[in-house]
Design a protein that fits this description.
The complex is a heterodimer of chains A (about 260) and B (about 350). Chain A is of the alpha/beta class. Chain A folds into two domains: about 1-90 and about 170-260, P-loop containing nucleotide triphosphate hydrolases (Rossmann fold); about 100-165, no CATH class. Chain A is built from nine helices and ten strands. Chain A has helices at about 55-65, 85-90, 110-120, 125-135, 150-165, 180-195, 210-215, 235-240, 245-255; strands at about 15-25, 30-40, 45-50, 70-75, 80, 95, 170-175, 200-205, 220-225, 225-230. Chain A has a six-stranded mixed β-sheet with strand order 6-7-8-3-9-10, sandwiched between helices. In chain A, strands 2-1-4-5 form a four-stranded antiparallel β-sheet. In chain A, strand 7 (about 170-175), helix 6 and strand 8 form a beta-alpha-beta unit. In chain A, helix 3 (about 110-120) crosses helix 4 and helix 5 packs parallel to helix 6 (about 180-195). The longest helix of chain A is centred in the C-terminal third of the chain and has 16 residues, at about 180-195. The radius of gyration of chain A is 19 Å and the shape is globular. Chain B has helices at about 5-15, 20-55, 70-80, 95-120, 140-180, 180-185, 190-230, 245-270, 275-295, 310-320, 330-355, 355-360; strands spanning about 65, 85-90. In chain B, helix 5 packs antiparallel against helix 7 and helix 5 runs parallel beside helix 8 (about 245-270). Classes of the chains: A alpha/beta (about 260), B mainly alpha (about 350). The interface of A and B includes residues 87, 95, 96 and 115 of A. Chain B: This is ABC transporter permease. Chain B: Keywords: Membrane, Transmembrane, Transmembrane helix. Chain B: It comes from Eiseniibacteriota bacterium. Chain B: It holds the Pfam family ABC2_membrane_2. Chain B: GO terms for molecular function: ABC-type transporter activity.
């Protein structure tokens, strides 16, 4: 298994500076999806990106995962720039989106072995890590079952195991509870908390206020590709005259849309 | 090929082997369906020939009609020229067979009338025609087998390679987009070049397997099965390919399989949905079949320019290999051109797979 050096506490593990993404459409012209956003996440922190559907959360996270290239600006993961050191960045991240699926015709074990190989792990390391995750993620009952025959909850646990298989220091979760029932979502949030407790840095996007409130150390409210407010849940509440996070969100987003 | 590309190759093949559609395209269709159909068509044809031999012309019946003009007898007696009509349907198998059988009878009548006319004018014409031609095929089964092999194998190979690569190429690219597994793959530390190379290799392996099974199916059905079954014994042939021919054929089909596989992967990267991908792939498949047919219809030595046309060149060269008439310059042009096209197509596939505006096209 690739052991990557861990940054000292207090160092910025995720650093985003003036990141911008513009898509081009033949009919509509340029469509700005993310507009010059900047933020920083420290090790062992859960950083929440809170926004409506289409606010720019997924595009931001895809740029951090090097799936999309930024139009301008930069982002560094563990000191490596997504623009010119994409390979190094990908070694240090685990990316999971609520929309992403798994290969239905593979078994859980085959899937984990495949992704272990793609992240450069040696076979013995993959086997030992699978045994480890089998217990901690409760995969024992269905690890040798084909993915296509698993329930949504089983698939999500397997997806999470896939993400942490190579033990990356940074985890990028894009609406990981999307499509899950209450129990499934609670299970995912518990795993996220456990990972934070183990010192992993997590960037977590959601449009569910209660989730963000329960799990995030710091939150950025994003709307129309721009960050409107950023801080801890308590500081955001204080700055907006109290109330719940939902009140803060509605007020902040409403102001920019002229609804407040 | 890196270790990671081999991992992609293994995974794609394992995935494909668990997909019923790939099994049908790679194993069932080449081994059972096409050779089986060829045998069946041959058997139908032989049955029809048997029927033809017993077919009698029924004048004024449904098969063919001989129309004699009024007053034909006095006209012939006077030595006048008369015109008779033979009505038949070319599109009707029995009718056209009746026409074929009637024609020599009419020729005999005409010849007899000429003799009568010549005799009535004092000529000594009482000998039958000096030469009668009887057609008899003296080819051995082995010779016929070689001829059929040279004609059919290049076409079958091109056809099966294209058919075998179609589904997996689209499934491994557009399928990843449609099933939302692509992002997961792209966020791993494996480079896009390694990913696309592994995918192309899996497509090429499947294509070559389909081609091999196509040839094996042809041999098994025409040589073994037809020999065992009395009803099909008329269709049995001795299809033989020497090891050196097999090796040379493999060397010619390899760059073509790479070219076709990479072209289909490139199409899969470009397509937004499986449906769109399969539509484009069908065009490539049709082009391959059309070019393969070009070799099927080639009579005599082809001009060198044809060895520069991808796919067609492979089929033409394989024909030369199977008839032991390889012209070195033909081989150099064909293999060189196919290899160059394969390299270009691999680069295009890699570029498209690395281009987010293509990969995430909406």
């Amino acid at each position: 298994m690739a052991i990557l050096p861990r940054e000292a506490p207090g160092v910025r593990l995720i650093e985003v500076l003036n990141l911008r993404k513009t898509f081009h459409d033949r009919k509509k012209g340029d469509i700005p999806a993310v507009r010059d956003i900047s933020f920083v996440c420290s090790p062992g922190q859960v950083f929440g990106l809170l926004g409506r559907n289409g606010a720019g959360k997924t595009t931001t996270l895809r740029m951090l995962a090097t799936i999309l290239a930024p139009t301008s600006g930069t982002a560094k993961i563990d000191g490596f720039d997504v623009n010119d050191r994409a390979g190094e960045v990908r070694k240090r991240i685990g990316y999971l989106s609520g929309d992403t699926k798994l290969y239905d015709r593979l078994t859980g074990r085959e899937l984990l072995e495949y992704f272990g190989q793609l992240t450069g792990m040696a076979s013995p390391a993959i086997s030992s890590r699978i045994s480890e995750l089998k217990g901690s993620f409760g995969l024992g009952d269905f690890l040798d079952k084909r993915v296509g025959k698993m329930s949504t909850g089983m698939k999500q646990r397997l997806s999470l195991a896939r993400v942490v298989l190579h033990d990356p220091p940074v985890l990028i979760f894009d609406e990981p509870t999307s499509g899950l029932d209450v129990l499934g979502a609670r299970e995912v949030l518990k795993i996220v908390r456990d990972l934070r407790a183990k010192g992993r840095t997590i960037i977590f996007s959601t449009h569910i206020m209660t989730e963000a409130e329960r799990i995030c150390d710091e939150i950025a409210i994003i709307e129309k590709g721009s960050i409107l407010a950023q801080g801890t849940v308590d500081s955001l509440r204080r700055e907006n005259g109290g109330g719940s996070l939902e009140d803060v969100f509605v007020k902040t987003v409403g102001e920019v849309n002229g609804d407040a | 090929m890196t270790h990671r590309s081999w991992s992609v190759w293994r995974k794609e093949l394992r995935d494909a082997l668990r997909d019923g559609r790939t099994i049908i395209a790679v194993f069932v269709v080449p081994f059972v369906l096409y050779p089986g159909l060829m045998l069946f068509m041959g058997w139908i044809e032989s049955q029809n020939k048997k029927e033809e031999s017993t077919l009698q012309v029924r004048v004024a019946g449904v098969d063919a009609v001989l129309v004699l003009p009024p007053g034909i007898q006095p006209a012939i007696a006077r030595g006048d020229s008369v015109k008779v009509e033979l009505l038949y349907k070319d599109a009707d198998h029995k009718s056209s067979a009746a026409e074929e059988r009637t024609r020599p009878v009419l020729d005999d009548v005409r010849r007899a009338l000429i003799v009568l006319w010549a005799q009535s004018h004092g000529a000594q014409v009482n000998q039958p025609p000096a030469i009668s031609v009887e057609h008899r095929d003296v080819s051995s089964k082995a010779e016929t087998g070689r001829f059929i092999a040279a004609l059919v194998i290049p076409y079958i190979l091109v056809f099966m390679v294209a058919a075998g690569s179609m589904h997996i190429a689209i499934d491994t690219t557009t399928g990843e987009k449609e099933r939302s597994t692509l992002e997961t793959l792209l966020s791993t530390s494996t480079s896009r070049g390694e990913l696309v190379l592994g995918k192309c290799m899996a497509v090429i392996t499947t294509a070559l397997t389909a081609g091999f099974i196509g040839i094996f199916g042809l041999w098994f059905n025409l040589t073994v099965l037809a020999g065992l079954m009395p009803a099909l014994s008329g269709q049995s042939l001795q299809l033989t390919i020497r090891p050196d021919q097999a090796l040379f054929i493999f060397l010619t089909v390899l760059p073509t399989a790479i070219f076709l596989g990479a072209a289909l992967v490139a199409i899969g990267c470009f397509a937004r949905s499986m449906r769109e991908g399969q539509t484009y792939a069908t065009y490539v498949y049709m082009a391959a079949v059309f070019l393969g047919l070009g070799s099927f219809r080639q009579v005599g030595a082809p001009p060198i320019g044809r060895f520069a046309v991808p796919i067609l060149n492979t089929a033409l060269l394989q024909r030369e290999i199977l008839t032991d008439t390889v012209v070195p310059i033909h081989a150099i042009v064909a293999i060189g051109m196919s290899a160059a096209m394969a390299a270009v197509m691999l680069v295009i596939a890699t570029r498209l797979f690395s281009n987010e505006s293509v990969l995430f096209r909406t």
